[in-house]
Amino acid sequence: MELVLFAAVLAGVVSVLCRELVPSSSFRWQIAVVAVAVLCGLVVVGARAAAEDDQPQETSPRGAEAQPAVKKWVKPENWPKDHPLPLVESNCARCHLTAGRELTAAVVNFVRSVHDQQQMSCSDCHGGNTEDDVKAHYEDFGFIGTKKSAHIATCSECHDEAAETLAAGGHHWDFSKRINTEYPMCFDCHGNHDIGNPPPDFELTLWCIDCHESPDKDFPNLLSVVKQNDNLWKTMGQVRRKRIHEEEPIPEEFQDDVDKLRHKTMHLVHTSKEITANEAKTVNDQAESLRTRMQKWLESNQ
Description:
Elements: H1 2-21, H2 25-54, H3 91-96, H4 101-110, H5 114-117, H6 122-126, H7 148-158, H8 160-167, H9 186-190, H10 204-211, H11 215-218, H12 220-242, H13 252-271, H14 277-300
Helix pairs in contact: 1-2, 7-8, 8-13, 12-14, 13-14
């Protein structure tokens, strides 16, 4: 608008000068027309320049860190068929979805684990920057990666009762001093990314046999609890896989019994001491009753 007013005033000045200084009226008219045309051209050019100045300009990354593009939260082509994504859309999972091999397998296994159900994400255990992909693995943001001793400390912070029970038994070792492979670590028995949702072929009994040469003789009653627990988890795994798209894969009718039984089993196994036959029978009967109910649920929901 300012350019238009300026051009109008300037055109008026040119007209006066032409009338006073140029003797021929026809020639004065021609000069005035040319002058107005030139001024109109200047107005157009100026308006375009002003419009370009109003457009937001891209800032150069020089002198400042360029922000990485945010990856889309979509399933990659090689994602298991009908397998859902984690409940929490984190920058860690977005990158690992397409990273391939064991980096993507970690996300696949994490889906509907107990930690996924609690809407936790990678950074809750691994640390790291959840806002900037470039700095995701910086130690300044508490990233611990796969450092075993640090992870065991993290497990203990949340699972204090389980950690205290384990510390009172023969399986305990202070891993803050050093790693000792003669003692089991949390993820040796519980897994890591798939906690609470182990693969179909997982058996805790095999881990006992791997360290103990004759567990059936040394602690037969406790071993029977572990074996019955394996039977229950095989059936429970079928239920979980059938309801994997649900935020809570275990049907509500079983949840209280599952929690109570897991708590009892945790105390028995973490103390790593032989129990009486009656103690074993009580727990095993509860586990078999729950397994039978789940099996009937599977048959009625085929």
